[in-house]
Amino acid sequence: MHLTGQTYRPPTEAETAMLEVTVGCSHNKCAFCDMYRKTEVCVAPLWQVEQDLKELAQSGREINRLYLQNGDPFILSADKLLHLARLIRQYLPKVKVLTGYCSIRDLMDKTDEELRALRAAGFNDLYIGIETGYAPAVEMINKGHTLQQAWDTLARVIEAGFDYAALLMGGIAGKGNSRANVEATAALLNAYKPAQVSWISTSVNKGTELEALRNAGTYVCLTEREMLEEEIMLLEALEMRDDCWFFGTHPLNAVAVDGYFKDKERIIAEIRAEMAEIGDDILDITLKRGSM
Questions:
Q1: Neighbours of 250 (CB within 10 A)
Q2: 288-292: long-range contacts (C-beta < 8 A, 24 or more apart)?
Q3: Whether residue 186 sits in one domain with residue 265
């Protein structure tokens, strides 16, 4: 199997078979992210994809779900993605879901008709890096889309029948902005409900633009107490379906908690109970975190 350069996937896809169709990230300019800075973006050649599919078909695994690598496989045109779906099923006929990371920017390039065709071909459960619905933070982190474009694109994604996971960055709006960040983000997600909400505490990684903003005092990190309080605020503000999954067990989070939104009160209670066990010496500082 080919896996080129830095390779990532969401923790919730840890057991999912992978297939490299692109390498790196086509944007690679998010202020907080260093995931693909050392990896040149390119498209995997078709012969390589087919070779890897043959290997997967001969692996003896029953594969009904496939995670497409790497940072944004949706940079491929709709025609190429549809051809890829047909090729996958030649070798893995039991595959029902084709998933992967996806950006608002990539989805904007697809027409409504193309989105519907991709959904019909099995593309679903897209991991969309929304990070925040707070306009000043969207601009600061240089996501490559505006907040209005996020609203417009998610509306089209839902209309086309996709389920998606909303990837959020806790504390990304900076100190003093938690309430505004929660209200704006909850408004977006309540309007276009995801199948999963993924909460990841913001990490300031060495060499990133966010580190430079922090060092200049433009961006001020939250304490652990403030980060957890923001997480609770968001949970309280979200009006999700009962079967929407809250994923809060990312390794960067100070408190690991998850569950369906039907158990939202239990999740909030667990966070508060954990906070009561953590000393002020930890809650009142900002922990140094590793890379995302």
A1: 19
A2: 289/201, 289/203, 289/204, 289/252, 290/203, 290/251, 290/252, 291/34, 291/35, 291/203, 291/205, 292/32, 292/33, 292/34, 292/35, 292/200, 292/203, 292/205, 292/252
A3: yes
Q: Which of 184, 180, 198, 185 is nearest to 244 (CA)?
A: 198
- Per-residue pLDDT 10s for the chain (292 aa) are 888 887 889 999 999 999 999 999 899 999 999 988 888 889 999 999 999 999 999 999 999 999 999 888 999 999 999 999 999 999 999 999 999 999 999 999 999 999 999 999 999 999 999 999 999 999 999 999 999 999 999 999 999 999 999 999 999 999 999 999 999 999 999 999 999 999 999 999 999 999 999 999 999 999 999 999 999 999 999 999 999 999 999 989 999 999 999 999 999 999 999 999 998 988 998 887 755 5
CATH value at residue 219? 3.30.750.200
**Chain centroid, CA 292 distance in Å:** 11
Q: Are 210 and 163 in contact (CB under 8 A)?
A: no
**pTM surpassing 0.85?**
yes
Beta-carbon-side half-sphere exposure of residue 173 (alpha carbons within 13 Å): 21
| Residues 67/99, Cβ–Cβ less than 8 Å | yes
Instruction: Say which amino acid occupies 40.
Output: E
Structural domain that includes position 13: 1-124
- Claim to verify: residue 114 and residue 156 sit in the same structural domain: no
